[in-house]
Each structure stands twice: as C-alpha cells, then as structure tokens.
Amino acid sequence: MSHQHSTTTPTATPAEAQRSDWWRDAVIYQVYPRSFADSDGDGMGDLEGVRARLPYLRDLGIDAVWLSPFYASPQADAGYDVADYRAVDPMFGSLLDADALIRDAHDLGLRIIVDLVPNHSSDQHEWFRRAVAEGPGSPLRDRYHFRPGKGAHGELPPNDWESIFGGPAWTRVTEPDGTPGDWYLHLFAPEQPDFNWDHPAVGDEFRSILRFWLDMGVDGFRIDVAHGLVKAAGLPDLGAHDQLKLLGNDVMPFFDQDGVHAIYREWRLVLDEYAGERIFVAEAWTPTVERTANYVRPDELHQAFNFQYLSTSWDAAELRTVIDRTLDAMRPVNAPATWVLSNHDVTRHATRFANAPGLGTQIRLAGDRELGLRRARAASLLMLALPGSAYVYQGEELGLPDVVDLPDEVRQDPAYFRGAGQDGFRDGCRVPIPWTRTGSSYGFGAGGSWLPQPADWADLSVESQTGVADSTLELYRTALSVRREQPGLGAGDAVEWLKAPAGVLAFRRGDFVCAANTTSQSATIPAYGRVLLASGEVTVAEDEAKLPGDTTVWWTTG
C-alpha cells in the first residue's frame, strides 16, 4: 500500500507560545522583508506586507519569525549597512508599523526576532559622518578603526586584510581640507565601516539599542557577523594570499577572536532583565562546530547557526558525521543544535541539490529541477526530524529554486559589482516569493517586484499549492503539525542510529523513526510502524518498506 501525507493545518495559541524553553525546539521562519510581501505597490516588500501575511505563517505552523534588517539604511548592502538602529527605513514603513507587526504576531502566538548588525554601521551613521567631517583627532574616529597608511605618503593600506566582498579591507578618506588622510577598516563593503569594540561607547550604545527593541516587545535578536566584533590586538598582517579561501578553515585575526565572548556575556545580562524568554541567535562562521559551541555557553547566546550542516552535501555519510559532531559539540554547553538548509546569502537548497556536490553554496546552474525538488523535500523532513531548532527561509516551503538567469542589468547584490570576493549572485535567492497564480508579481504587490520573477512561478505559488495533497507547501504544513504532536520530535540532544542500507540514514527518537534515502535507487528497509509522513511515495508490504531514492519517511512505533 502507498502512503500520502494528510493536509491538517496547525495553529499556535498565545499560551503555547509562552511555554518554557520554547527556543530549544523552535521552528523559526526567516522573512527577507523586501521580498516577502509589498503592501503599497512600490515593488518593494515592507513591514505592513509582512503583517498582513502573519496568518499564513501561523497556519504554516512555525514558532517565530526572524526579520532581516529593516532599519534606516542607504541600502548599500540590502540593509546590513545601518544608519540608525532605532528607526525603520521609510521603504519598509515606520516604527508604528513595527509596533503593529510585533503586537499582531503575539496575538497569533508568534514571536518576532529582529536582526542586529553590531560589527559595522553604515558610512552614513551619524558617528562615522562626524568622524570624517571633524578630521584627524576627532574622538569619534576612535569608535571605528581609523589608521594612518603605510608608505612614504601613507598611500598604502595599514595592513593586508581583504574585504569579504573583495579588494582591500581599507578605504582612505579625504580630509576636510581636501588632502588624502587616514584609512578606515571595513571587512565588508566600503560603505560598512567596522566598529571598534575596544571603545566603551560602542558597547554602551548597543546595550541601549538592545533595550530599545526589547521595550518594543521583540522576542530576540539574530546577531549578524557575531564572530567579527573583536579584532586581534595591533591588527596584524595575515600574510596569506587568497584570504577568502581561508575563511571558515582557521581562526582569523578579524574573526572568531575570543574577546567577543565578554561582549555577549554583557548582552545576556541585559536580555535576562526582561521576562518572556527572549533569545539571541548567533550568525557565527567558525572553523569548527566545536568553536561555534563557545557562543552558546550558558551565560552567552542561546543558539548559533549551523553553517557546517548547511554546506553539507546530500550524502548519508557526510550528513551523519555533521549531525554527530553538532550534537556532540552542543551537549557539553547544554545548548540546542540548530539546523538550516537555506538563507538570504546562499543558493536555495532546491537548486544546490539539483547540481553535483562540491560546487559550494553559491551556484549559478539550474541543474536538474525535478531532482533538486525531490531532494529538497527529503532534506527538509530530515532536518525537521533532528533534535533542536530548525530554520526555514521564506519560500523554501514552496520548493522555490534559485533564479539563476537574472539579467546582469537587474542585479543588486553589492558583491556582484565589486568583481572579486563573493560571487555576488545572492539575488537569485532573494527574488520575491509568489502568492497567487496570476496578477502583478504573483500577488507579491500591485506594482511589480524589485527583482523579476520567473514565468513558471505561478504553479509554485501559495495559491496553487494550498490544499494540494502532494504539494511542497502541504508537506511543510503537515510536517510542522506532526512535529508539534510527536513527543519524540523537537527538543533533545541525541539520536539513536539504526542499521540501514548504504546511503540511507535511519534513526530513532523515542517512538519516532526517521529514514532518509540519499541515493538515487530504491532501498528496502524495515517497516518501523505506522507511516506519519513521507516526502515521496513509500510502499509497505508486511514488515518491509520500499523507500524510493531521494526520499525521507517518518514513522511512529507507538
């Protein structure tokens, strides 16, 4: 007999949202505001658009919404260049819109996590503008990393660090009298000068910013570049060419310095002043998952993104290794593991898995779309079955692929225009998502969309998939409903691996069993009990089950 999943719709009540340690097994949905929903028809998503779609997110069955930056910003890096941390950029709305969004989310039993960008500001931030305008000796320059250049006339950068976006990590300012002056450090775009966290005013300011948004009612913060705040004393030369290839493989003088942990211990004291179990989530790119665990010690942050898992191929052996290492690393610090497959900086996993392994996390090839979707669905069920917290990037519940054929003239990723560093193809995962079969921008908004959507996205829209039993949207809805209902799912720190054919992962958690076939061939496995859900069609005969290639199945033995 064959088993298909049902289409039950979960709901979250405010009482459920207040349960203890909610974050240990939370499913957190990332909203990229400019690409989620547009309320005013200007082609750009906004907070009021997000607010109007909150019932959709409640019905999907998630626990919290993480909003990418919506602060006042010149948008040199899609809002990660913040000019005012206490203001909403007019393109997204106002502080009143943010307040209404937070209140409505809470009424629906959803929590709101906002992005915080403490490594750098915009070059239009008041501090930086004054630092440049006041010239050499301005005390505000001490709040950033201003240094004289090397060479006979200071014409060379202070050290050999490279920007993540390509080119030197230093830019020279023109002083008020018109002469070339000091250089300032920016690990990302020149419009994003790095703060000097050795200066007490920087720490004071960010503790104040935390309180501002906590007083507004937010439930937590996702910390951008959490590993980058502290730089090695003296800003020493790195001495290595092609520094970008070293990222994630070694502790760099500008990343993952031990000094960051004192900052987060101070922040935790602020957070713990507030009721309601507010949380911190670290975006910390570290050489190993063991070093990631340092960020989630009991007196620091609550969660850290698991980039090692995100970058793992669809391969049973590789996945098992990363799962074991993650759980082993988090257990000693009593922090939940996190699992993520896509975000706003990497190619969507439906496209990554459509291509051969080893191409990295930014891929410009469409690959085999059907294969990619099949693997993406299977990978999603595997991820949601693991102990800990899971992150879902907007549109992955629709099975959206990356848009790999955007014309050059519409691209807006700043890294694309720098000609070096990151590939600059992040626009492909940022194309606004489709809500309806027809209409302007498939229901995203009345005035088109800031990035063009593919012509075949009508069939991937929320409208097209709602109520369709085998759709990816209903697969996610049912998976999140089952996850809430099954005591063996969610929080925890271990899995019991079961014997399985080569290329198949099988594990038990209480009365729950998950089996994922990462090969292209069908595999015969035991029938562990009653099928709860499967990403494809699973055939059960007596005590055996036929698990198709690139398919995951959930069982209950209870």
UniProtKB/TrEMBL annotation:
Keyword rRNA processing recorded: no
Glycosyl hydrolase family 13 catalytic domain sequence ranges: 30-426
Transmembrane residue ranges: none
One GO molecular-function entry: alpha-amylase activity
One GO process term, biological-process aspect: oligosaccharide catabolic process
Pfam families recorded: Alpha-amylase
InterPro entries for the chain: GH, GH13_cat_dom, O16G_dom_2
Keywords for the protein's UniProt record, in alphabetical order: Glycoprotein, Hydrolase
Family in the record: Belongs to the glycosyl hydrolase 13 family.
Protein name, per record: Glycoside hydrolase family 13 protein
Provenance organism: Streptomyces phaeolivaceus
Classification lineage: Bacteria, Bacillati, Actinomycetota, Actinomycetes, Kitasatosporales
